[in-house]
Design brief:
With about 375 residues, the protein is α/β, with parallel strands linked by helices. It folds into 2 domains: about 260 residues, Acetylglutamate kinase-like (Carbamate kinase, 3-Layer(aba) Sandwich), CATH 3.40.1160.10; about 100 residues, PUA domain (Archaeosine Trna-guanine Transglycosylase, Chain: A, domain 4), CATH 2.30.130.10. About 40% of the residues lie in helices and about 20% in strands. It contains 16 helices and 15 strands. The protein has an 8-stranded mixed sheet, with helices on both faces. The protein has a 5-stranded mixed sheet with strand order 12-11-13-14-15, with helices on both faces. A two-stranded antiparallel sheet has the order 2-3. Strand 2 and strand 3 form a beta hairpin. The longest helix is centred in the first third of the chain and has 23 residues. It is globular. The protein starts with a helix and ends with a strand.
């Protein structure tokens, strides 16, 4: 990574693969209109990166906003069918806007629509990875978006930050840039604390960092700093630097890519954990169905000992999940320290909490859980 950073500082981005996420508040100048002047400026920055040798993937919000404009609506509706209709109309308009902005720079773009179902399925996840790799190999700038027309959950939560982190993992990116309507992460909510300070660099997601993240902040989008922190946690585990910068700031993309991040850079100061493609899929490919809260002993074993999670180290269970579904792993303070695939359903996990292997083996209802971890290390990603 050091060699790539040094190249960037010298104006050479050869070998870099950069994913840029654009929020609705950045690409629009109202609830229902694309900011064409900003998009032209963004296209110029992308062209600069490409000319310096980088491959670029764009994860873009804005389809619903485009659709509202085409439908003559100036306020965001609240009913799901109208939102889906707006997304359907707006996707074509969004693609056209990118094509028009990229044309002066002889850049060819494509549209890649993903849903949470695509990424939750392992085979579909790998197909998406191969398709994106081929597009980049052909010199294309893929424009990735959630398929809001059919993905009800994504419209409801607007979590394109998670989608961007997923894409960064899919393409083995060297940098993820998230363009937002805020300068970066602050040590307190700047809307409520006038002297809140920008945090220029984060090397570890602590409880204080997580609590500093506020809720959704703008009317155009529905994501917030919380989703960005979740994305950063996975990026740091994967060893991929992530930056949050104000999207409307002049040259925000090029400055960040060339080593002068004007916002917050998330980059672990220690060697990243060994994170296999399967573990990245576990971390980002599906929504967590519940959570396992672990004691301090289990936390230490998971973070430093490379251990699997056994029932004896689990204090309590949150949510309802089936065997084989993805769950968060939390410490006693409620901080998410990992994510993995549960080997047992939540009702069985509740009964097994705190029990040793010997106790499980003597229990006729739970004896099958004695032979395997509740979450195997191969199916577990730790975020610290």
């Amino acid at each position: 990574m050091r060699m790539i950073v040094e190249q960037a500082m010298q104006g050479d981005l050869s070998g870099q693969r950069i994913v840029i996420k654009i929020g609705s508040s950045t690409i629009t100048d109202s609830v229902s209109s694309i900011d064409e002047a900003w998009l032209a400026s963004f296209a110029a920055q992308v062209a600069h990166l490409v000319s310096a040798g980088a491959e670029v993937v764009v994860v873009s919000s804005g389809a619903i906003a485009c659709g509202l404009g085409r439908l003559g609506m100036d306020t965001r509706p609240t009913d799901m069918p109208t939102l889906q209709a707006a997304a359907s109309v707006g996707e074509a308009a969004l693609v056209s806007a990118y094509e028009e902005a990229f044309a002066p720079f002889s850049l060819t773009s494509s549209i890649v629509l993903l849903t949470r179902r695509d990424t939750a399925d392992r085979e579909a996840y790998l197909h998406a990875r191969d398709a994106l790799a081929r597009l980049l190999g052909l010199g294309i700038v893929p424009i990735v978006n959630e398929n809001d027309t059919v993905s009800v959950e994504q419209i409801r939560f607007g979590d394109n930050d998670t989608l961007a982190a997923l894409v960064a993992c899919l393409v083995d990116a060297t940098l993820l840039i998230i363009l937002s309507d805020i300068d970066g992460l602050y040590d307190a909510d700047p809307c409520r604390v006038p002297d809140a300070r920008l945090v220029p660099r984060v090397e570890r997601i602590t409880e204080d960092i997580a609590s500093a993240a506020g809720g959704p902040g703008s009317c155009a989008g529905s994501g917030g700093m919380v989703t960005k922190i979740r994305a950063a946690r996975v990026m740091m585990a994967a060893g991929i630097p992530m930056a949050i910068v104000h999207g409307k700031r002049a040259d925000a993309v090029t400055d960040t890519a060339f080593g002068a991040c004007p916002g917050t850079l998330f980059k672990s100061g220690t060697r990243a954990h060994e994170v296999t493609p399967r573990k990245l899929w576990v971390a980002l490919g599906d929504a967590a169905r519940g959570a396992l809260i672990v004691d301090e002993g289990a936390k230490r074993a998971l973070l430093t000992g490379g251990a699997s999670l056994l029932p004896v180290g689990v204090k309590s269970v949150e949510g309802s999940f089936a065997a084989g579904e993805v769950v968060d792993v939390k410490d006693a303070a409620g901080l998410v320290i990992g994510r993995g695939v549960a080997s047992a359903a939540s009702d069985a996990a509740v009964l097994a909490c705190g029990k040793t292997t010997e106790e499980l083996a003597r229990n006729s209802l739970l004896s099958s859980m004695a032979a395997r971890p509740l979450v195997h290390r191969d199916d577990l990603v730790m975020f610290e």
